[in-house]
Amino acid sequence: MAWKDDDDKEITGPKDGIWVSPTETWEIDHFVEEYLKDHSYKVNDKNRAIVKRTIDNYSGSNPIKRDDLIDYLNQKFKKS
Which of 14, 17, 52, 67 is placed for a possible disulfide with 25 were both Cys, Cβ 3.0 to 4.6 Å? Predict the structure, then answer.
């Protein structure tokens, strides 16, 4: 069986998880929890939804690397 590449489908957003090392990935939900904790944000449903929505708009290429995504989120959520 061969992969079909003529189906006009595109993968958008980081659907495969976040690469935290060359051999380890995290699910999106786990990454969001860790991001909120590590950056001293309240860990609640509202903040989870905001971070996930922002990740959906991330235009970096797959595979998504944790450090690249953290830099992107930090730019979006600058603390004053």
Answer: 17
Contacts of 70 (CB under 8 A, 6+ apart): 35
CA distance 44 to 61: 28
SS3 content of the chain, % helix, strand, coil (to 5): 40, 10, 45
Instruction: Using DSSP, state whether 72 is helix, strand or coil.
Output: helix
Task: Give how far Cα 57 sits from Cα of 22, 41, 43, 80, Å.
Answer: 24, 20, 21, 23
pLDDT at 18: 93
Please write the tens of the pLDDT for every residue from 12-33.
544 568 999 999 999 999 999 9
pTM (2 d.p.)? 0.76
